[in-house]
Design brief:
Two copies of one chain form a homodimer. The first copy, chain A, is α/β, with parallel strands linked by helices and 245 residues long. The first copy, chain A, has one domain: Rossmann fold (3-Layer(aba) Sandwich). In chain A, 40% of the residues lie in helices and 24% in strands. The first copy, chain A, is built from seven helices and nine strands; from the N terminus they run ββββαβααβαβαβαβα. In chain A, helix 3 packs across helix 4. The model of chain A has no long low-confidence stretch (mean pLDDT 94). Chains A and B meet through helix 6, strand 9 and helix 7 of A and helix 6, strand 9 and helix 7 of B. Strand 9 of chain A pairs antiparallel with strand 9 of chain B, so a sheet runs across the interface.
Chain lengths: 245, 245
């Protein structure tokens, strides 16, 4: 892990861009974090494209920092400045075509789009976790926050250092991953935008039902894919404060 | 409205039992409420049986009072010390039999149980609202909180003094009331216990979908009918604080 830039935001948060091999990432640490009082960590998930997503990512990181959490994110495979995958681009085009035509989305398209992404991304997020947790100012426990929900589900199953997850049910999940969802046991807070135009509501509800955790909460709101209300951001902070402190 | 008893709870809340004609009720006012600073009001809904429900009702009222809200409730028709209705008792027995047998509940049973209850209870709650709002220490705006959800839906449609409602999706709703649900426009916060043994989850989700309000939120949790987590109580308080202050 190699830091490539560093700046102090106006609220005292330290923002550092880094490279993990050829994967770009960003780490935010609250002004209060130090080697003597290491901060718990939230992995900030997103649909890919760090530059495009930056305004929303930094807002979430500031929110987390205000609660004493560090936050880290990395670019997804095939997004942002990382090399494209022809197969993923084709699957994405097929998905868009089906959605634009108002057709049901074939499981086969979802599998082609999401399964290779999960397979590739999850080891990268775990490597990022190794690197970030080796810093003296970052401690544990660790939470995962956001989409891609299939990545969050897989991480919740395979990565024992993740203690709680806030999952955004805003993307398609391969049917084969529902069995995996039953293996999740950590506390979960699931956000669903009820009238999300690019999401399958019934699939999101089925996934929530499948998740194995005894403590799981679903919060559904109006307002489309990006319209999560401010008060739900506060609820997310309280969720992590309950489980990571 | 005739007060029949009065006591001061240890947190300063004034609890007064009253009779509205032959309908018993309870009014709680925060220690801070006065004619010069009248408190906003929350109507505390419940499934019937004031004595049986008292521990939970007083807890909700204390929670509301801590936020500066007065709270009021009345007995439902056919419950507690009020005269039974033979037809309602028969419908309730039929519902219990269907649930115990694991059978789907006929719409006809729900209609027989819930429609007469809504028809009778809603005018009573509106009369209670008239009486309570005539007190100098109680002002507006007014929120409705709780079940019976069909009563909450009808009140939200017909009673313009109700500005926001927290609805507990824990009881059956007649199919004919789904059209009514589309007419609701006030902000709504709906609680659903995901594995509520005496409730129909899909019906609750369909009802949430049908509700006409632009601002509506669904919070679903594990834990059975009475297992609403403490943090959802706090979320309910924040919901009313956003809309009634």
């Amino acid at each position: 892990m190699r830091f490539t830039s560093e700046k102090r935001l106006d609220d005292g948060v330290l923002e550092r861009e880094f490279a993990l091999g050829d994967i770009p990432g960003i780490l935010w640490t609250p002004g209060s974090a130090s080697a003597s009082a290491p901060a718990p960590l939230i992995l900030v998930g997103h649909p890919g494209g760090l530059h495009r997503m930056y305004p929303r990512l930094v807002e979430r990181a500031r929110h987390s920092a205000a609660e004493g959490f560090a936050a880290a994110t990395i670019e997804l495979p095939g997004s942002g400045d990382r090399p494209r995958s022809a197969a993923a681009e084709q699957a994405r085009a097929d998905l868009r075509r089906a959605l634009a035509a108002g057709e049901p989305v074939d499981d086969e398209i979802v599998d082609r789009l999401v399964l290779p992404l999960v397979e590739k991304a999850v080891p990268e997020w775990r490597a990022a976790l190794d690197a970030v947790l080796s810093l003296p100012e970052i401690g544990g426990p660790v939470g995962y926050s956001g989409g891609v929900i299939a990545i969050g589900v897989r991480l919740a199953v395979v990565e024992p250092r993740i203690s709680a997850a806030l999952l955004f049910a805003g993307s398609f999940v391969p049917r084969t991953m529902f069995e995996e969802a039953r293996q999740v046991t950590i506390p979960l807070h699931v956000l669903l935008q009820w009238d999300d135009e690019g999401n399958d509501r019934q699939m999101a509800l089925d996934l929530f039902d499948a998740l194995g955790s005894k403590e799981k909460t679903l919060h559904a709101n109006m307002g489309g894919h990006t319209g999560v209300p401010q008060f739900e951001g506060d609820n997310g902070s309280r969720f992590f404060a309950r489980h990571l402190k």
